[in-house]
């Protein structure tokens, strides 16, 4: 096995993006290959050379598989190049004053064993190592910040409110539900299997949960769990679920539009029909992107680290072993194969 010797040339296994994707992504849209990399930051560069430990599988990555013409707020992947995303890594060499050899970081990195990162703006130094490092792909990383920003900043929650979360067992949803319970809210989540529904109630402490695949009428399901209506909806799926929520809002309901995974693989997006209710209920729906809130990361850690250490928040991870398992793990997000936060362990240290 390669040592972490700076300056040495080593083999670098990579997950390469084959070509732009239509419909549901497949494992064959990516392939694993190996190149070589010199474990050294080039002379005069202020980049950082890292050894990748954990890689995060996130639904937004599907949008990066579209051609640039359809690109959203983030650039498309380049066919023939490694895919990239959030991860946890160890610094082996640095030309940047804020990072030194041996530092642990989380942020945007390549899906490969070693990465030379020139964009260090999106890198956070890991100060707290008394929690699992893998948590920095989830509860202490981008998904955790997403839950925090969407719930506290976009929804302005109050004690006793009625909160509904779709895709509630995922990386973000499981956390939003626990934040809401800690605040004294009534919390219901939807998920796609009996096991996930059981986990929401028994592990994360949701008041109620249901399997949306077993509900023929989502409007009726929501009326069953929210006879008085919904104050806050944390939106992860879009489509028919959003339409049903719009029929079940209380006055001044807030909807945080975090993701709409039901639409990512459709060539024609579904329409939403009940928007008139936003007016009659004086409700508001707000989209948000987590990088706009990264300046609040220190406050987020102050809130969440004590909860983790006191056992007041629990977090479920679904860890795929080895870079080779990356394509299957990423594609599995869109069929609900993962239970909890999906990540890939590239190297444990």
From TrEMBL:
GO terms for molecular function: 2-alkenal reductase [NAD(P)H] activity. Its EC number is 1.3.1.74. Keywords: NADP, Oxidoreductase. SUPFAM superfamilies: GroES-like, NAD(P)-binding Rossmann-fold domains. GO terms for biological process: response to oxidative stress. It comes from the Eukaryota. Residues 171-304 form the Alcohol dehydrogenase-like C-terminal domain. Residues 13-123 form the Oxidoreductase N-terminal domain. It catalyses: an n-alkanal + NADP(+) = an alk-2-enal + NADPH + H(+); an n-alkanal + NAD(+) = an alk-2-enal + NADH + H(+). PANTHER family: ENOYL REDUCTASE (ER) DOMAIN-CONTAINING PROTEIN, PROSTAGLANDIN REDUCTASE. Homodimer. Belongs to the NADP-dependent oxidoreductase L4BD family. This is 2-alkenal reductase [NAD(P)(+)]. The lineage of its organism: Eukaryota, Viridiplantae, Streptophyta, Embryophyta, Tracheophyta.
